[in-house]
Amino acid sequence: MKNPASIGYLQEKISSEYIDKEFIEKNPVEWKIIKLFADSPFLTQAEVLSKLKITKEELKNKNKTILNLDWAQNYIINSGAGKKYWNNTVIPAIINGKTDAVINEEYEYPDRIGFCPGLSCQFFCTFCGRNYSAAYEKEFGDKGYEIFKQIIDETPHKSNNNPYHITGGLEPLTFPKIGDMISYGAKKGFPMEMKTNGFQLSPTFLAKQQGILDLSVLRISLYGVNQESTLQVTKNPAGFEIVKNNIINFQKLKTKIKLGLNYVILHNNLEDVLLLLDYIEDVNSKSDNQVNFLTLREDFSPEANDLSTNERKRLSEIFNEIDERLKTKNLDKLHIDYGYALESIKQKRKSLEPLKRIDYKDMRKKMFPQISIMVDPKGDVYGYHEATFLDKEGSERYCIGQVSKDKSLQKVIEGFIKKSEGVESLPLDISYLDAYDHIITILLNQADADKKFGIPWSEGPIKARIY
């Protein structure tokens, strides 16, 4: 089996249908362990042991057996309800020893860097965590540009490295040098990806910010499928029509940029997902071009409740309808990413687990800047995605330092790891974490728990967790 720390291993496509039936018949306990981790990647060894009638030493031996079975390793990662967790987050976080660095409080340059260049925003979304009255002064257009260039210059090049995602905070297209920033990163050899609300993405704007055409991936977040639903969320009466026309005009350019749409499935609005396909079909028809992908997500805002059993069953039916729609002429090239929790619904799993979350008591004092950080136009570096919103109450506690002309990102991260005592979490601090932050925290806490239990990852059943 290939080294799990290589990108090639992640891309390897082995038939997930292959299993060793003879081994399964003779080793039912090992098979149970394999299935457990395929569906639930974050089980601790203590939790596994509690489900089996064996001793701790026997568990170690069975782990060793599973560790050396290529088909079992492939099954765990690619065949269960947890495959999105494994492939999208767990394995990438382990590559190059990042999780080890966090656990051992050692410095590593992060593989995931979020640039949050926006100075303001045109929308006032109901679920957004930002301070609606907050905006950066115009001077941070120039100052922020220099900070972002400095970080790009500092970032080490690695094989298949895609470290940057340009996102909010505030709307990225309000950054006056957004095109220059994208071009700078692209010329340095980094694939540039941006997420935007699409409101400013007009032909006139693109003519002034031609560097946007140097993107590798452009994600546009949709906040409604029609005028009524978009207005209800964004409070901007022009939002729906302007964004849709901007997408159509952008697609008419027929660039090499992969264009995708992001959409959050809200309670009581499940049927809107089908209307979303109508939206995409209309865009594709009018632009004579197809949207590349659609990411569907559960509502992860702090106020949201988990989808009910009935809602999840209805979603399963809706996803079946989507499969049929994807066979039609103007949708046949659309790839849909159902994300962490929705994937289990798509797979028609009997166990429909909600999206993984932690409690504020589980937050790590020093977060995980060796894996992921966010940077705003001031150069402030944050440990959590949702803490980067300007003037969000209490979020400054999760700022780990400031990049400046005289202080590199490496110095900021090293100083925080070596000198800071970290942050004592409070109940409301959970709002600073997005879904990714929750998953990485769960992963790191799992590693700590297994080590404390006496069966660290190096003695566990999964090769992909061993760097």
List keywords for this structure.
single chain; 467 residues; TIM Barrel; 2 domains; 10 strands
Mean pLDDT: 90
Sheet with the most strands: spatial strand order: 7-6-5-4-3-2-1-8-9-10
What is the total number of structural domains?
2
Number of strands: 10
Q: What's the total helix number?
A: 18
Describe the main β-sheet briefly. 10 strands, mixed
CATH class of the largest domain: Alpha Beta
Explain how this protein is built.
With 467 residues, the protein is of the alpha/beta class. The chain has 2 domains: 7-101 and 446-465, no CATH class; 108-360, Alpha-Beta Barrel (TIM Barrel). 42% of the residues lie in helices and 10% in strands. It has helices spanning 7-11, 21-26, 28-39, 45-51, 56-67, 70-78, 83-94, 98-103, 139-154, 178-187, 203-208, 227-234, 239-252, 272-287, 309-325, 339-346, 409-419, 435-453; strands at residues 112-115, 164-166, 193-196, 217-222, 258-265, 293-298, 335-337, 372-375, 380-382, 399-402. A 10-stranded mixed beta sheet has the order 7-6-5-4-3-2-1-8-9-10. Helix 3 (28-39) packs parallel to helix 6, helix 7 crosses helix 18 (435-453) and helix 13 crosses helix 14.
